[in-house]
């Protein structure tokens, strides 16, 4: 599956975050995802998609919608994952819905968009600028499909859908990938869980002792989902922890024939505030 890099703005009579939603719809539908709902007439516009996974026989339900307030000057997206789809239900009332907000913009948005048959990842540069990233769809489970048939993840930048602008610098606005917050949820066999994410919290890798590059080559550390006690469920697909030592957002690199772009956590620039996004081909 391909990736797409570009920008949207407030053209064609639409604000940029509306055009971003349309771009996701066009890119996903062109590359194997079925559009179950696309409403571009309401103030809060909606997109619900179904993926078939690598087997071609799965049903993976994800969605994006907008929410905004001109008086508060925020124009955001919502990343969502569902356990099913009911046409008569509202977006937020879809079966098993989990939602996480992603601050966006009403003017220009630069974006990096990549997908495969089981998940979609979006990164955006907005505003001052800051960087916003989300992940919806399946992870890579450490279990057989018969044991764990629907290992989906919803990871955004906000706890739910608060009235948060991209310029917010609080700890409530940041990578869901760091785990241990409502910004990332894993669907286990019986419920959504706000899990921990390795290697954040590991002092040898993401604490006082820092990884760095070796002759310009950076190790890519899988982001693994666990409960900080006995359970390790799996790893995110195509998102990796990368050290910020002598590194910078939007850097690119090739590893084993695959292309990656570096993204940062909003405006944060410490060693632990970066991920590498695989740009699928």
Q: What integer value in Å does the Rg equal?
A: 18 Å
- What characterizes the major β-sheet? 7 strands, antiparallel
Helix-strand sequence:
EHEEEEEEEEEEEEEHEEEEE
Global mean pLDDT: 96
Total of DSSP H or I helical runs spanning 4+ residues: 2
Class by helix and strand content?
mainly beta
What percentage of residues falls in helices of 4 or more residues?
under 10%
**What is the first-to-last residue Cα distance?**
5 Å
Low-confidence stretches: none
Tally of domains: 1
Count of beta strands = 19
* Apparent shape: globular
| Order of strands, widest sheet | 1-7-8-9-11-12-13
The amount of beta strand, in percent, is 35-45%
Provide keyphrases for this structure.
281 residues; 7-stranded antiparallel beta sheet
């Amino acid at each position: 599956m391909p990736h797409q890099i570009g920008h949207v703005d407030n053209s064609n009579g639409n604000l940029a975050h509306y055009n971003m939603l349309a771009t996701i719809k066009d890119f996903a539908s062109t590359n194997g995802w079925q559009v179950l709902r696309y409403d571009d007439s309401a103030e809060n516009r909606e997109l619900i998609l179904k993926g078939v996974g690598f087997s071609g026989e799965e049903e993976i339900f994800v969605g994006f919608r907008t929410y905004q307030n001109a008086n508060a000057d925020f124009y955001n997206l919502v990343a969502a994952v569902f356990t099913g789809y009911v046409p008569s239900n509202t977006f937020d009332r879809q079966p098993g819905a989990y939602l996480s907000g992603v601050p966006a913009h009403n003017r220009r948005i630069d974006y990096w968009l990549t997908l495969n048959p089981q998940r979609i990842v979006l990164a955006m540069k907005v505003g001052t600028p800051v960087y916003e990233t989300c992940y919806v769809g399946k992870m890579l489970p450490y279990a057989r499909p018969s044991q764990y048939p629907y290992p989906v993840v919803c990871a955004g930048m906000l706890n739910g859908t608060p009235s948060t602008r991209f310029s917010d610098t609080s700890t409530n606005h940041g990578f869901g990938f760091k785990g241990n917050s409502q910004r990332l949820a894993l669907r286990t066999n019986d419920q959504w869980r706000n899990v921990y994410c390795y290697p954040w919290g590991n002092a040898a890798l993401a604490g006082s002792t820092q990884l760095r590059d070796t002759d310009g080559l950076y190790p890519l550390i899988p982001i693994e989902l666990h409960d900080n006690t006995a359970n390790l469920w799996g790893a995110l697909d195509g998102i990796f922890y990368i050290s910020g030592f002598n590194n910078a957002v939007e850097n690119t690199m090739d590893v084993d024939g695959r292309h990656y772009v570096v993204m940062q956590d909003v405006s944060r620039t410490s060693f632990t505030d970066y991920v590498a996004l695989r740009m699928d081909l």
